[in-house]
């Protein structure tokens, strides 16, 4: 039954991990992306595992009540927004239920209260950075694939990689994630390169020239950066392109050229040159300003980062005598935001570059009650550091998707911190960690915040207090 390749009709009953719709056939789960509860669909089974199947949506026979028409023509193929076909209120409801499911199933917490998800005022065009790829082969549309004749996919393709395919680029015509000027700039670069015989990067043979176009814009100011990532250092190509861009789009405030001659498909070059303007943009989070260069980390949804930080600040309830720890502090944006009321704050972070930026950010904002320590949390955070900086009255932890190392969790338990705030971009690992902390700390409140509308990702802030 339901072998790979079988075509079948299914009714979607719920939503599972990564936002895929779930149907049940004789008790067996079938996961189908691009579907929503209540949809009656025709699907092809693409993966047959012992306990589940995966399917590909072929046709929606009857639409579920929460299905809407995606805004973007690329929505079903592109990896950028997997949830554009779901009405935004339902996205928020689902995200809350996903946190509940993880807390119950993984954390073992029953009947837990979870606040309604804080939604994004602007569920489209919310990103302040897009990293577009350039390739020599484009992704074909389903109609082209199903045609009986050969379709040549070689071209100057500019857009986004289809999930799991790094050799082909979806040649996008529009995008609803960043301000519309972003894809207009991309379109201009594509046309200019085609007209001037500038070759796209060939991922297989490691040849060609143009690799990425990265666009960063500021939310609070009018700064706009275009970063042209190329395989070679050739100012005869890139300088006239930069001039043409600035002439066409007076909104551009700086143009950078990152030269990446490595095979690694990153948009971070071995070195960079400033072609126009100051070489960075500036933005704010709350009242703190940040100088953001082409490769600096910065929260990608500025407005919603402020919402998230406000929740963390409220839950931290910092008092003037408090020593605060900010674990996994990145470039110190949250640390600065929280430093205002604290006696002192220590940020700890693995990345050397991020720590250097955190120190610079503190200096340029005249914040002198913060300190930053570089190192792997598992080894740095513990008795030694608390002897040096004092025991924390309040601790914020914002780990990567993998959550915290068990030794870090154990140290937090040993420290018995009066006020604890856990910020998480992955509620399943957060639930796992909170379960290990449940003998020492009580969960007082859980707040999901939607940083990435049109995707299944959800950020959650947990307020924890030491048990009496
Ligand atoms: C979710 S981000 C934190 C973002 C930051 N709090 C902010 O608001 O911008 C997680 C951070 O953890 C850092 N990180 C990852 N593994 C780490 C480790 N083993 N030790 C210390 N920091 C680590 C990453 O470099 C990253 O900056």
Write the layout of secondary structure elements.
Elements: E1 7-11, E2 14-15, E3 21-25, E4 28-32, E5 40-48, E6 52-62, H1 88-105, E7 129-137, H2 142-146, E8 154-161, E9 169-171, H3 181-195, E10 210-217, E11 224-230, H4 235-248, E12 254-259, E13 271-276, E14 280-285, E15 288-293, H5 302-316, E16 323-327, H6 333-339, E17 344-349, H7 352-364, E18 370-374, H8 377-380, H9 383-389, E19 394-397, H10 406-415, E20 419-424, H11 427-437, E21 441-449, E22 459-466
Parallel strand pairs: 4-6, 11-12, 16-17, 16-19, 17-18, 19-20
Antiparallel strand pairs: 1-5, 2-3, 3-4, 5-6, 7-8, 7-10, 8-9, 10-11, 12-13, 14-15, 20-22, 21-22
Bound molecules: S-adenosylmethionine.
Residues 299, 328-330, 333-334, 349-351, 354, 376-377, 398-400, 425 line the site of S-adenosylmethionine.
Bound molecules: S-adenosylmethionine
| Number of beta strands | 22
Q: Can you tell me the number of structural domains?
A: 3
The CATH superfamily name of the largest domain is Vaccinia Virus protein VP39
CATH third-tier fold name of the largest domain: Rossmann fold
Shape: globular
Secondary structure: helix percent: 25-40%
* Strand ordering within the main sheet: 9-8-7-10-11-12-13
* Low-confidence region ranges: none
Q: What would CATH call the class of the largest domain?
A: Alpha Beta
Which structural category fits the helices and strands? alpha/beta
Cα-atom radius of gyration: 24 Å
Count, helices:
11
Largest sheet: number of strands, sense, barrel closure: 7 strands, mixed
Hey, roughly how much beta strand do the residues contain?
25-35%
First and last CA, distance: 55 Å
InterPro entries: MeTrfase_TrmA_AS, MeTrfase_TrmA_CS, NA-bd_OB-fold, SAM-dependent_MTases_sf, TRAM_dom, U5_MeTrfase_fam
GO molecular function, one term: methyltransferase activity
Protein name: 23S rRNA (Uracil(1939)-C(5))-methyltransferase RlmD
Keywords: Methyltransferase, S-adenosyl-L-methionine, Transferase
